[in-house]
Amino acid sequence: MKLEPNCVRDILLFCEKSLGINADLSWETLHLPNFCQSLPSYTKETIAYTLILLDEAGYINCHVIEADNGIVDIYVFRLTYFGHEFIETIRSNSVWEKLTSCVAKIGSASLPVIQQLGSSILLDTLKSI
Questions:
Q1: In this structure, are residues 59 and 77 in contact, taking their beta carbons and an 8 Å threshold?
Q2: 3 state DSSP class of 113
Q3: Is the dihedral of CA 37, 43, 45, 50 positive or negative?
Q4: What is the distance between the alpha carbons of residues 50 and 54, in angstroms, rounded to a whole number?
Q5: How far apart are CA 85 and CA 88, in angstroms?
Q6: Which of 20, 14, 62 is closest to 34 using CA atoms?
Q7: How far, in whole angstroms, is CA 77 from its chain's centroid?
Q8: Among 24, 28, 41, 68, which one is most buried in terms of CB atoms within 10 A?
Q9: Mean predicted confidence (pLDDT) in 37-43
Q10: Beta carbons of 52 and 74 less than 8 angstroms apart
Q11: Strand boundaries in the chain, DSSP class E
Q12: How many whole angstroms separate alpha carbon 129 and alpha carbon 99?
């Protein structure tokens, strides 16, 4: 499977909007059906794969429930500091459009490269203000 950068961005923005700590200081959680319902342009498989990779990369904290060599559900507890940092780099639609245009020219890029490129575009934008 291929990691889809648009799915990464949409998942992280959805996590930021939906996750947090409630009044009892308990973590709000999301699970796989929440993502599938809120991000219908992606398949369940794509969302699950992206969530697992975002956890492995340290952008979110989640727990995968497996049975019989398959995924039953995925619970996402929170964004990490690195997840928030990544979102701030790619939040702006204009930065994202420039970034995806650059990535399309080379064919693909890893998440660290996307973050570095986003930072570079963001800094250039700030310098021009």
A1: no
A2: helix
A3: negative
A4: 6
A5: 5
A6: 14
A7: 13
A8: 28
A9: 97
A10: yes
A11: 30-31, 60-67, 70-79
A12: 19
Per-residue pLDDT of 44-63, as tens digits, reads 999 999 999 999 999 999 99
Distance from CA of residue 49 to its chain's centroid?
11
> Could you give the CA distance from residue 50 to residue 128 in angstroms, rounded to a whole number?
34
Extents of the domains making up the chain: 5-127
Q: How far, in Å, CA of 41 to CA of 107, rounded?
A: 21
Q: What count of other Cβ atoms lies within 10 Å of the Cβ of residue 27?
A: 13
User: 35: alpha, beta or left, given left = phi > 0 and alpha = psi -120 to 50?
Assistant: alpha
76 closest CA partner among 127, 126, 23, 32: 32
Enter the pTM of the model: 0.90
**Average pLDDT rounded to a whole number, residues 31-52:** 97
Residue type at 19 in one-letter notation: L
